[in-house]
Amino acid sequence: GAVVSQHPSRVICKSGTSVKIECRSLDFQATTMFWYRQFPKQSLMLMATSNEGSKATYEQGVEKDKFLINHASLTLSTLTVTSAHPEDSSFYICSASYRDMGYNEQFFGPGTRLTVL
Amino acid sequence: AQSVTQLGSHVSVSEGALVLLRCNYSSSVPPYLFWYVQYPNQGLQLLLKYTTGATLVKGINGFEAEFKKSETSFHLTKPSAHMSDAAEYFCAVTDIQGAQKLVFGQGTRLTINP
Fold first, then answer.
1. A79 in reach of chain B (CB within 8 A)
2. Rg (alpha carbons) of chain A, rounded to whole number
3. What are the backbone dihedrals phi and psi of residue A86, each rounded to the nearest 5 degrees, phi first?
4. Looking at the complex, does the CB of residue A104 fall below 8 Å from at least one CB of chain B?
5. Which chain B residue shows the shortest CA-CA distance from A103?
6. What residues in A contact B23, CB-CB < 8 Å?
7. Where are the beta strands (DSSP E) in A2-117?
8. What are the tens digits of pLDDT across the range B20-30?
9. Furthest C-alpha separation in chain B
């Protein structure tokens, strides 16, 4: 149980285009979804937290207009990288959580490798 | 604010040897602590977690960790390393209040020598 998928797993795009990444909780309803960014050989950096039906809460320094997050249902959240540039190339990981015993355990997706040419 | 420090960005051990990955945390509230493993180009897999109760926590793949409040530590150990243990390991902390965001350490790359 508690499986989270991401699509696509890998995407290459041209500079200036927009890319959408989907995150789905396959066998549970996620009260909250998180989006992380990971640079090579570095740790995960939280970009934003989203709850179903409400606006995402972005971490300091993350551009809201650059990284659009939509959490339309309890099983789906999307991250759109708008007008992508080479510096946006990174590994993007989502996680989904539900409240259990007072704690929201996070389950992680497999990640999406974005390369912007 | 919470933070995590993993001592040693790279640890190398021989197959069959003890694995010890160090994690120290800082938290103003009782923490929940986690160890995750990441294989190349993959997401994170939970190895084990400490929430409440017993301070010695056993996880998957033979790993265990002990929560030591007095030392603010949560070191990860495995008695005998296997080649398949080679991966990146992340320690993380969260609180049980608010948004319950995870704060990750910088990671430790574990290499197993044959």
1. no
2. 14
3. -55, -30
4. yes
5. B96
6. none
7. 4-7, 10-13, 19-25, 32-38, 44-51, 57-58, 67-73, 76-81, 90-100, 103-108, 112-116
8. 999 999 987 77
9. 45
User: Across the strands, what pairs with B98?
Assistant: none
pLDDT (tens digit per residue) in A55-102: 899 999 999 999 999 988 889 999 999 999 999 999 999 999 887 655
Query: Alpha-carbon distance B22 to B5, whole Å?
Result: 8
Q: Does residue A46 register a pLDDT over 60? A: yes
User: Do residues A84 and A17 touch, judged by C-beta distance below 8 A?
Assistant: yes
CB distance B78 to B85 below 8 Å: yes
Q: How far is CA B28 from CA A102, B3, B72, in A?
A: 19, 10, 11
Best mutation site among A9, A58, A103 for testing chain B: the one with the most B CBs within 10 Å? Answer: A103
Scanning the structure block, which residue is given the tokens 């509230």? B29
| φ/ψ of residue B62, rounded to 5 | 80, 5
Burial of A102 from C-beta contacts in 10 A (0-12 / 13-18 / 19+): exposed
Torsion of CA A24, A40, B23, B96, to 10 degrees: -30
| Beta carbons within 10 angstroms of residue B111's beta carbon | 12
